[in-house]
Amino acid sequence: MKINVDRERCVGAGQCVLAAAGVFDQSREDGLVELLSAEPPQELHAAVTEAELICPSGAIEIQP
Amino acid sequence: MTGLNDIVVVGAGAAGATTAETLRRQGYDGRLTLLGAEPHLPYDRPPLSKQILTGHWEPDRIRLRAPEAYDRLGIDLRLGIPATRLDRTGRAVELADGSRLRADAVVVATGVRPRRLPGREGADRCGEPAGVYVLRTLDDALRLHAALAGGPRLVVAGAGLLGTEAAVAARRLGADVTLVCPARVPLLDLLGPHAAGLVAATHRGLGLRVRRDRVTAVTTARGAVTGVRLSDGSRLDADLVLVATGSVPCTDWLRGSGVSVEDGVVCDLLSAAGPGVWAAGDVANRPDPRTGRRGRWEHRTHAAEQAMAVARNLLAGTAARPFAPLPSFWTDQHDLKIQVFGDLAGTDRCHIAEGSPAEGRFTALYGAGDHVRGAVAVNMPRQAQRLRTLVETRAAWTDRPPQPTPLGAADT
């Protein structure tokens, strides 16, 4: 699994941080998504998939 | 998997597309059809009144998933074909092209259409005089964007989230814009006084006029708009009119199906609307266990959350769980990014938690009955998450975080 985030699409809703805190964070300056781990371990895949689905701006893309 | 072999999701906006995708991710391996009335691949609507209307983004940019994703997920995506009838006893959905799809379960995600001005409720797009626009679909946004070239005079009827965002976008394109707002201040009920005040100041700074009134009719000459009439009897000249006065659920196709419809599809706490029928997104009218009231939530976050809940509940059988999200939405107003959690309606106290309205960035808590009921963040998205928990747990008002900077005037 490889994750891409599009900071221009991000609206800073923070849903990804709620779903997968170890993988996503919000930047201190603008609150937009920051990727902590672009290739997270297997045990986080379900949480990351949840984050991709719940993201209200479609800013998270997962490559299988 | 509860004996389901055919699921039809009607509506391919955020709610429909997320339902279909979640069904697959939850392990559903039967036939799955996603029907869209529009010809476009599922796309995200919030940018329509922002980056698409201003022309900063190309339409491809708002696709929810890459075109090949639907094949990969085994979703039979059929675009440009509205559903015309639900046959519950025959377990089928009928389409405008005459075809009939078998359905063990149907998810209604047909969304809403813009409300028209009084007396024009039945009008379709072709029936409107030239110069009258609505903004719901990608095609609507592209048409309005094209019409905004050359600095026309635009009247925006309605000053909710859509009307205000579109007015800002049009102003940035150089249009001469008047926002006709029936309320004292645009967005006051939704955002509270501090954030609504900043929005009003931003609108003024952009040279956007706000007129406190209601549009009652469009005036025309030779089939084209010349202006609008207001409820106080006066007239405003205009080359273009954007009608942004709310929306109507798309439920006509459910007539005679036995599905209960009253301002949307009437659902229960699980988002079910009867045996084998579910609803998600703008079209769903559901009870809110937090307040005991029923309603529809026309927000992007809600669409995704309800879609995921519906997909899970549909597959869960007796293990289905009530859907009780914390309401939330955001709006961009030029350089203000505003997030709201919970509900400010009926709150009687406010506490600025961080920053200050004067500096254009702050977080605020709103409360009633000694409990936190809502939170607003302006240009502080990271800090907003901390307040979210206080709203979600209905924290005691006395547990609110201390105010870091003295701002006596804001605390009431």
Automatic annotation (TrEMBL), chain A:
Alphabetical list of InterPro entries matching this protein: 3Fe4S_ferredoxin, Fe-S_cluster_ET
Matches recorded under Gene3D superfamilies: 3.30.70.20
Keyword annotations: 3Fe-4S, Electron transport, Iron, Iron-sulfur, Metal-binding, Transport
Single GO molecular function: electron transfer activity
Listed cofactors: [3Fe-4S] cluster
Keyword Transcription regulation: no
Database matches in SUPFAM superfamilies: 4Fe-4S ferredoxins
Stretches assigned to coiled coil: none
Role description: Ferredoxins are iron-sulfur proteins that transfer electrons in a wide variety of metabolic reactions.
Name by which UniProt lists this protein: Ferredoxin
Organism in which the protein naturally occurs: Streptomyces bungoensis
Origin organism lineage: Bacteria, Bacillati, Actinomycetota, Actinomycetes, Kitasatosporales
